Amino acid sequence: MTLIDARIMPRKAKATEHLPFERIQTARVFEEVTTQIRQMIMSGKLKPGDRLPPERDLAAQLGVSRSSIREAFRGLEIAGLVKLYKGGSGGAFIAQLTSEVVVTALQDMFHLGTITPEQLTDARLWIEAIVVKVAVERLTEVDLGLMEVNLNEAEKAFAAGNYEACARITFEFHNILARTTRNPVLIANVSGMINIMHHYIGIIGPPQSKYILKSRRRFISYLRERNAPMAVAEMEELLRRAHRHYLSQLEKPPVLANKKASAA
């Protein structure tokens, strides 16, 4: 068990045996169980750290089989809403929600085809423009130092011909930038989009263009000057250039797509 998990599990679990669960009569039983638990979380009747009733007790209360309860718990665990623990002190506990839920949802939407590459491009341009404007107002010298370190590492990787490492470090720059906003919604959305961009690199190959590093150096200088218009313009130009390349490469056969790449 991790330290985080230990914080989620309370020393004395809150009694949840008498929550107003309703007996279920629908065909897809586990979905109704899931819906009731979700509604109780949204209404505040269930809070992070609360322990749900044992499978046997909840099954009897709802008038369903234990297998239906088990299936509902597993679905909620996958969604990040419940933590399951084994042993005498184990059970199903309401999880402490984090931005990982948003990140996972975005990735799932992309891989299932709900989000197209063109839609991702538009969203990334809009969201990153907001991130840059907020970052200019809120970033500290520590934040700028982290960006400088990131850029230096990317330049070293590129000079060594390690383009895969360079791409990974370059993408992480956007997460560093998002964290300067101190806003978990922006941080989660940027993280989700960057994870999807890693998928692109897996298709078209790692970047081999030095343009991004030169642009990044200019961008950091604009941040230091607190020049929001120039910083936004620099980021937008870089992203538009990169995404035009991504989209054109994705239309090509995989063999041809691996010959060249540029990333942001």
Q: In angstroms, what is the radius of gyration? A: 23 Å
Global morphology: elongated
CATH topology heading of the largest domain:
Four Helix Bundle (Hemerythrin (Met), subunit A)
- Major sheet, described briefly? 2 strands, antiparallel
Oligomer: single chain
What is the correct CATH architecture of the largest domain? Up-down Bundle
CATH superfamily of the largest domain, please? Answer: GntR ligand-binding domain-like
| Poorly predicted tracts of residues | 1-8, 254-262
Instruction: Tell me the count of domains.
Output: 2
What is the succession of H and E elements? HHHHEEHHHHHHHH
Strand coverage percent: under 5%
- Helix and strand composition category: mainly alpha
Instruction: Kindly report how far apart the N and C termini lie.
Output: 37 Å
Describe the protein.
By secondary structure, this protein is mainly alpha-helical. It folds into 2 domains: 92 residues, Arc Repressor Mutant, subunit A (Orthogonal Bundle); 158 residues, GntR ligand-binding domain-like (Four Helix Bundle (Hemerythrin (Met), subunit A), Up-down Bundle), CATH 1.20.120.530. Helix 3 packs across helix 4 and helix 10 runs antiparallel to helix 11.
List the helices and strands and how they pair.
Elements: H1 3-8, H2 29-43, H3 55-62, H4 66-78, E1 82-85, E2 91-94, H5 100-111, H6 117-138, H7 141-159, H8 163-179, H9 184-204, H10 211-224, H11 228-250, H12 254-257
Antiparallel strand pairs: 1-2
Helix pairs in contact: 2-4, 3-4, 5-9, 6-8, 6-9, 6-11, 7-8, 7-10, 8-9, 10-11
